[in-house]
Specification:
The complex is a heterodimer of chains A (166) and B (131). Chain A has 166 residues and is mainly alpha-helical. Helix content of chain A is 49%, strand content 8%. Chain A has 6 helices and 4 strands; from the N terminus they run αββααβαααβ. A two-stranded antiparallel ribbon of chain A has the order 1-2. Chain B has one domain. Chain B has 6 helices and no strands. The chains are: A mainly alpha (166), B mainly alpha (131).
């Protein structure tokens, strides 16, 4: 008798994320989000903040008539703060709670923990965005990693044990 | 839509780089935007990818000498982009079958090749920007 015994009724350990068997194989859950989808979601998240940045620039900045230097009025920090608040609400609170920032929701992808398959919470979502520093400092290679990585993770995803799924 | 293979995805990225390289000079001139090397900005040491923006812009303008001088890796990306474009077209037309996952041995070999290319590029950039 071989060991371990080949028992067809043995309990199979739960596998939250079965690995896809090949490029042509039917989709099995979870299907990791592609690089283009992730870029699209990030751009949409950026577009959500863009109006406040533009308002801050156009309404909050001026030019000194004497020196010609750029000046700022009270509207600049106000719109900047609103932009930061919107970004934080969207990328950390909403995305941490539901797994989907507005951009990810529009594209139809979700950020979840590898171990549980559940959203990661606002705190971890915040730390994950901080960890994107390492995606940038590595000559942006970290941002490109999902192109060839088996789980399509960035460095920040690997550090926080997260994946983006469809 | 089927899942694309890694070379096909890299080719797609190459196509994006080509489009961005066409638009980049106008965007940069109008907005003052730049894409600095984070490693070089922080430490003064260039990275293997340094010069790729310059190389890509020069390449799409047909200035191949300038592109090579900035970063020869752009020729590899261009070749991969063209080859994967042909591959995708042939597969879409049914001439070729769909991609199959590589064996672990082949993945390992390609990983080593990428590491060698990155090292060679780094030496090139160190020579170009610090010597």
């Amino acid at each position: 008798m071989t060991y371990p015994p080949n028992n067809p009724y043995a309990q199979v350990p739960p596998q939250a994320y079965p690995t896809p068997q090949g490029y042509g194989a039917p989709a099995v859950a979870p299907s990791y989000a592609g690089w283009w989808q992730r870029v699209g979601a990030y751009l949409i998240d950026g577009l959500c903040v863009l109006p406040f940045s533009l308002l801050g620039i156009f309404l909050g900045q001026g030019t000194d008539e004497v020196t010609g230097a750029t000046t700022m009025n009270a509207l600049y920090p106000i719109f900047t703060l609103i932009g930061v608040a919107v970004f934080a609400y969207n990328r950390w609170f909403v995305a941490g709670k539901t797994g989907q920032s507005w951009g990810r929701k529009a594209i139809g992808i979700k950020l979840v923990a590898v171990s549980t398959g559940m959203p990661i919470g606002a705190g971890k979502a915040f730390v994950r965005d901080l960890a994107h520093f390492f995606d940038g400092i590595s000559c942006y290679i970290g941002y490109l990693f999902p192109i060839w990585d088996a789980k399509k993770q960035t460095f920040a995803d690997k550090m926080l044990s997260t994946v983006v799924v469809r | 839509m089927r899942e694309f293979s890694v070379p096909e995805r890299l080719g797609g990225f190459g196509a994006l780089v080509a489009v961005a390289a066409v638009a980049w000079p106008a965007v940069s001139a109008r907005t003052g935007a730049a894409l600095p090397c984070p490693l070089r900005t922080l430490t003064g040491v260039p990275c293997p990818a340094c010069g790729l923006t310059t190389a890509a812009v020069a390449f799409v303008r047909g200035e191949f000498g300038a592109a090579f001088h900035a970063n020869p890796l752009i020729f590899g990306l261009a070749g991969l982009t063209v080859a994967s474009g042909v591959l995708v077209a042939l597969r879409a037309g049914g001439v070729l079958g769909g991609p199959r996952p590589w064996s672990p041995e082949r993945r390992r070999r390609v990983g080593w090749l990428a590491a060698v290319l990155a090292t060679a590029s780094w030496l090139f950039q160190l020579h170009r920007l610090t010597v």
